[in-house]
Fold this sequence. Notes:
The complex is a heterodimer of chains A (76) and B (526). By secondary structure, chain A is mainly α. Helix content of chain A is 67%, strand content 3%. Chain A is elongated. With 526 residues, chain B is an all-alpha fold. The longest helix of chain B is centred in the C-terminal third of the chain and has 28 residues, at 442-469. The two termini of chain B are 19 Å apart. In chain B, 48% of the residues are buried. In chain B, strands 2-3 form a two-stranded antiparallel ribbon. The chains are: A mainly alpha (76), B mainly alpha (526). β1 of chain A pairs parallel with β1 (474-475) of chain B.
Amino acid sequence: MKRAAPRSTLRTLIKRHKPQLCLAAYADLLVHLNFLLFLHRLAEEARANAFESKSKTIKSEHTMAAAKVILKKSRG
Amino acid sequence: MVTLECWPALKPWLVCFGRLEMHLPDFVPDGTVMTALHMSRKKKKFSISEFERGADERLPRNLGKWCYSLSLSLSPPRSLQISLATPVPPESVEKRGLIRRPKNRKAVNVEAFEGGVEQNLLQIKAQNHMAESQATSIIGMTMGTSDTEIVLSNTELFAQPQLGEQSQAGFSAPEQKLLKGKNPVQGRKASNAAIEAGVLSDVDAKEGMTERLQKKDLAQDPEHTDQMATESRGRAVSLSSEQREHTRGSSYAEQLPGADELVAGIKYRRSQRELSWGLLCKLLLLLSKNVVKSPTSARTRRLSRHSTAMAALYPEQSGRKLMKEAVEREAELDGVAVIGEVGDSEEEEMTEEEAETEEPESEELSMKTPAFIRTKAYRPSPLLSTPRSLKTAASRFSPKPPLAQQAAKRTVMAPRRKREPALPSSLVKKIFSHYAKVPVARDAFKVVEKCVEVYFRQLSNDLEAYTMHARRKTVQEADLELLMRRQGLVTDKMPLHVLIERHLPLEYRKLLIPVAMSGNKVIPHK
């Protein structure tokens, strides 16, 4: 069920945004962890929104509202 | 460090750990003292050789951390000479897996193994690069390389998708092959009229213009070589496929009368190739048209040939690079008298490498002077029609700075490539739906995808801020931990390691969380 972290892709993504930066040996794993936790929080928030509107599936508006909150939270 | 003399003291430990089952990395060198933990229990006394034998048997199955540390501590060869004598365990089949490995009883094994793990993870990436590097090394100056060789020698950053199988005398096989694969229009043999009519794929005004240009050349010089035909074809095709904006080139085309029949038959072979190179040809052709109005015959001819040949060889992606190179080439060519001949040979015999470097130049020039090129290219072509002469000429030109041009080509390709990397959407979908636990609408995934992009941007900004604050250039794990702390993911109640253990798969856990082993060993090795 769990898939391997796309380590090289993560590194290229960050390199694209910040070419002057480079990642330590296992830092990209922690980035992946961070990414997983971000998605986790996003999913939880979206699910909560969906339940509030009494729908059994997550719709895009639920996700949008959730995204606003979570992105603000994960600004660090 | 545990030595042999300490064995009796360790006996009770063996008993305690007898039933422990722990996972160890497989790289523990065999032959070292592995605990036959189960076996040790049954004996009051045990000899080293028995112990080792048991360890050998048990090694692949049951590696306790204690065993590992013990083995490591016992790794010095002198203490294990007895056990090391037989690399192959006498009985156990389980050891087969370890036999393959060269026995390395130094502590470095840990690092080697981890290095191997890392390499495995990056293997796929490496393979691509290796293929390219190998190909480039293989290429050399071969003329008329086989298809496979040409495929190998393709130094393109992207693997070329279409590679038809076609070998034609005097023409580089790859060109034809590539063109054929890419050429959607198979009915090249049709008369030019058909082409003019816009049978070409991506029919454009350009395409028609290029056709006309070709005709013009043909009309003026009835003796075309295949090169010329294909060149003009390729140009036409490239123009049509690539440049829609360029209407300047068409001016030349319009002037040409229609001499379709000549062109059609000869161009067929090349046209296929050239169609695939439409992008390159288009760019170069336009440039050539605009810039050079009355180029020298040799230069134009060479450029034209190059452009067509190269266009055929190289994928559209290299079009930009080719343009730049073509500009360079043009400068070089000025004043060269015999270039035309060389151009012919180059065009045909150049390997992909060469073509890469030369293609942009020729294409550009040819594009700049489509009409002139064709007319002038025709005249010298009969002189060098023989493949031998072409080959020699090509070989002469092959030493041209391929590396520099390849490097230039790579840099041009790089910005293109940057757009591509993005997290695989399937992965994002899977993770999100797993965390959501309820069905998710498809539109919601798009929102999630956008969120992810924003998130990564924020993440890189934050990481940069932290790293710069620490006056470093490399993002360390400490930076990540600080980020998570600030995000509220890591608190005093929830340490980072717990998060790691919860969410990451086992292999990553081992890499991230340092574990202290006996004997002052820490995994992963710091």
